[in-house]
């Protein structure tokens, strides 16, 4: 609590009010001392008037008058004559003389502070002007111990009252600060925390409502910042999605164009003059398209469109894929074999299931080709009560350590030099769109096997 804004206001208010009360206390204690001495002079004057009325007072009555006045003797000057009106034995010599008639405020404050910090009992002479112009001056002799005790008592009461006022004022300010400042600030902080946790949630955007001008300006500035940041995040997300979409489309389109490029190589061998004349232009166009696709593979990730699920004969899809791959292989030493049952029907998007298998087959073929050895890529499939399973196995060298550590991570999971690693990432994402998955069953010198799982359920429990 002490580290909070309202707690510090509470402490500072108490300290400042106490400081103000101390500054008030100094002249107050001086005023109290002056009033105390003037009261003694007034009592002494009253006692002396009794003597003027009857100058034959008994000694006991005179002593009682002096005791009631709190002085040892009274001197009254009337008509330029100084008269000792009342007197009693003085226990010790007079230490100080104070003339209240022309004392300045600074002198009164100094004398009060000196008396307050001076212990012991002294005898002092006090001179003042008689009330109601009953003479030129009145002078009394008195002890300082009762004066100091009265000053201390007054000072303690003043300090206690100051402390009560300070605490009460601080509590009022504490409540006011919490209501006017702390509560609105907490509202702003709450909006900031909710927005930080979910920038896309519109409920985290602040609605300015503070009545304090400065807080209202802060809320409006935060609103503008959140609005601009939300727009920037949405724009960034769109660009990221667009980048990844371009990268994935380019990856698959590059493979398709590579197949088309091999077809054009066959066309160039045609004996037809027109075909031979147009084939180089076709080859150049396809080559430029392949280069353009390869240049876009550095773009970011994006979400694939939701698959259009239909019942698809998997054998037909795989046969088309095998035929296209065999054409692209040419003199390649890699053989692609399909062991998919002819009657196996799966629920999938035909285009996306083709891309899933194509990416896995293409990765396996490229891994074997990179070794310069002969090899085989086998596509098999089966179903059980819960899912359809498609397996792509090869006799290649196995995945390197770096590829295994970054499996399905775009641009990091490439198994060959120069590979983008998008093939596995695309296959995994397309499988997730079907509610399924792609997993690595095994890899090593004897070969690698990837399994594609397509669940039969509709995802409900």
From TrEMBL:
InterPro entries noted in UniProt: HATPase_C_sf, HATPase_dom, His_kinase_dom, HisK_dim/P_dom, HisK_dim/P_sf, Sig_transdc_His_kin-like_C
Membrane-spanning parts: 6-30, 158-181
A Pfam entry, by short name: HisKA
UniProt keyword Nucleotidyltransferase present: no
EC annotation from Swiss-Prot or TrEMBL: 2.7.13.3
Catalyses which reaction(s): ATP + protein L-histidine = ADP + protein N-phospho-L-histidine
Alphabetized PROSITE patterns for the sequence: HIS_KIN
Source taxon at top rank: Bacteria
Domain Histidine kinase: 248-458
Signal sequence coordinates: none
Family annotation (CDD domains): HATPase (cd00075), HisKA (cd00082)
Swiss-Prot/TrEMBL keywords: ATP-binding, Coiled coil, Kinase, Membrane, Nucleotide-binding, Phosphoprotein, Transferase, Transmembrane, Transmembrane helix, Two-component regulatory system
One GO MF term attached to the UniProt entry: phosphorelay sensor kinase activity
Keyword flag rRNA-binding: no
Any coiled-coil regions, as ranges: 215-242
Main EC class the enzyme belongs to: transferase
Name the record gives this protein: histidine kinase
Organism: Parasedimentitalea huanghaiensis
Lineage: Bacteria, Pseudomonadati, Pseudomonadota, Alphaproteobacteria, Rhodobacterales
